[in-house]
Design goal:
The complex is a heterodimer of chains A (about 140) and B (about 120). In chain A, about 80% of the residues lie in helices and about 0% in strands. Chain A has four helices and no strands. The longest helix of chain B is centred in the first third of the chain and has 24 residues. The chains are: A mainly alpha (about 140), B mainly alpha (about 120).
Chain lengths: ~140, ~120
């Protein structure tokens, strides 16, 4: 249950950061920093130990939300990236403890995975369309 | 990148890393609040490229004291991340989390420097 809460937190935080970044045009830095600050202030006193983890995963997803519109085209796509970020956070959070920037690295891996999947999917669809057009 | 802009980027990175480390450990607000506060100030006050560099450098200041034990080491890591930022600007531009990856790499480089010089 706690893990599900963390993934949902990541989705919401990632979409919020993306919205401030792209939809409101405030840029990636403000989008991420605002979401991370709100999470860091609100979650720990409200939810105790779980809240500390929620603050960390919200910050992680906010770093992914700094992505440009060229790579992630909509808030729906950002929700997928947020979910990926949450799952990666659960898997990789114990790695390199105390090294600043590791959460952003998790966000970057989530973005790269999503962009890579989109390119692969588009390439496969294109191949299928070419086969259909050639009658094979 | 022009030389003056590059030097300014390194300066901003050093200040951001040190401020974040200070707010994180000396004032005790924790890594997330320290970094996000520096990011908000940078986002409001600085132009976009320097704000991005400051925010990236703030991730360095999120490091634990076991990794960067003092403000001096945070300043060193700020110099390193500033150099990495100006060296890798076009790489993966527009990819979320790139700043964090840059910062983590810089922290590990700094740890390597510390080990080599026995610091």
């Amino acid at each position: 249950m706690e893990q599900l809460i963390l993934v949902v937190t990541a989705i919401v935080a990632g979409v919020a950061a993306y919205a401030i970044n792209v939809e409101l045009g405030k840029g990636g830095v403000l989008g991420s920093a605002i979401v991370a600050l709100i999470g860091g202030i609100l979650f720990p006193p409200l939810f105790g130990e779980l809240g500390s983890s929620m603050a960390l995963v919200a910050a992680t997803a906010s770093y992914a939300g700094m992505v440009s519109k060229n790579n992630v085209h909509s808030m729906g796509e950002m929700a997928v990236v947020g979910a990926l970020t949450g799952l990666l956070f659960l898997a990789a959070a114990p790695a390199y403890p105390g090294v600043g920037g590791r959460l952003g690295t998790i966000g970057a891996i989530a973005c790269l995975c999503f962009v890579g999947y989109k390119h692969l999917f588009a390439s496969l669809v294109q191949q299928d369309m070419q086969k259909l057009a050639s009658g094979k | 990148m022009k030389e003056n802009r590059a030097l300014l980027t390194v300066l901003v990175a050093v200040i951001a890393a040190a401020c974040t480390w200070y707010i994180n450990h000396q004032l005790g607000y924790g890594a997330v609040i320290a970094s996000s506060f520096v990011g908000i100030v940078a986002g409001i006050v600085l132009p976009a490229d320097l704000a991005g560099a400051a925010y990236t450098a703030s991730f360095v200041g999120m490091s634990a004291t076991a990794v960067l034990p003092s403000l001096g080491f945070a300043l060193l890591a700020g110099i390193v991340v500033g150099i990495v930022i100006i060296s890798t600007g076009p790489v993966y531009a527009g990819m979320g989390g790139k700043g964090g990856t840059t910062a983590a790499t810089s922290v590990l480089i700094t740890r390597g420097i510390m080990r080599v010089f026995g610091l």
